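Lecture 7, part 2: worked example. A protein chain together with thymidine-5'-diphosphate.
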Amino acid sequence: MKHLLVTGGLGFLGSNFLRWYHRRHRRVKLTNIDCLTYAAGIDNLGNLRSSPEYEEHRVDITNGRRLRSVWPDDPVTVVHFAAETHVDRSLQDAQPFVRTNILGMQNILEMARRNPVRRVIIISTDEVYGATPARGKFREDQPLAPTNPYAASKAGGDLLALAYRQTYNLPINILRSVNVYGPRQYPEKFIPLFITNALNGRELPLYGDGNQQRDWLWVEDFCEAVRRLVNAPQPEHPIYNISAGNQQRNRDVAKTIMRLTDCSPGQLRPVADRPGHDRRYALNDRHFRKEFSWRPKTPWPDGIRKVTAWYRANAAWVKKRQRQSYRSYYRKQYHWRFDE
Ligand code: TYD
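Predicted complex, written out as structure tokens:
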């Protein structure tokens, strides 16, 4: 029987992927290693947690001893999602990022070296390349030039993974995606933050001039890309970019959300920029599209409408996340910006 080991399966990407994969491969055994950080939730998985194919271990990947004790004996395909991911938090405190994204990565790679693995897929990001110039797109051979501690920790993790692939001849592949959006993303990230603030009559803090560009990929299109890589017997390339081909300026995303939520124009608040803010990310994903015949299926207008509707319909889910720790992060991140 096939066995899939996912790390970070209670977070945004991991939980969406587990649901997506399980719906299409009912008989594959699933092991989820997750330490339930602030951004995760057991409610993200719905009924899947009670399925007989599913097993969960509450383990922090930075704890090598605990990780060893729960690692399965049979050959697994690993999808490594577990990471600290929010740039603004990494600017407040980089340490958890270095711990999880580099030391945690090394523990995962060590497990892959000492145990039978069919394949290890590392979930990475466009941010490792740094900002893309106003024109053009980065290919996988673009030198890494991260500009914030989050991106640097992911770049460090990617380099470690490539070193293990080369040195120990391990079947490791890195998937670098553009920004992903969809249901169950913790409401500190741009799209869920703006939707939830708009719905709650709060201000929408737009950094700088709002002309920064991101390429937004619908989460299920992302999950399908990961699924195809998981099921591939022998991927051709060590690293794959994936993109949506949907470049949006932040100010336009904000306007769209405001329209969809009937938010008052006065709620939009241009605020002090993020230090070292990358103006644009854009990836060339020719390799992945060609090899896996993959195309994103969800057009932006549908995706942004669906995600707005999801947050509107799931106020209880949001409320659960906006606990004390969220409020103190929010205060530190935004209050001085609003006061300026
Ligand atoms: P984010 O969701 O943090 O993703 P990333 O920085 O990793 O791409 O931010 C997306 C964009 O939105 C980015 O250009 C920063 C901007 N942004 C704001 O303008 N205001 C905010 O409060 C946040 C969180 C982000």
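Residues 164 and 293 are 28 Å apart (CA to CA). The domain at 3-182+216-242 is CATH 3.40.50.720 (Rossmann fold). Keep this in mind for problem set question 3.
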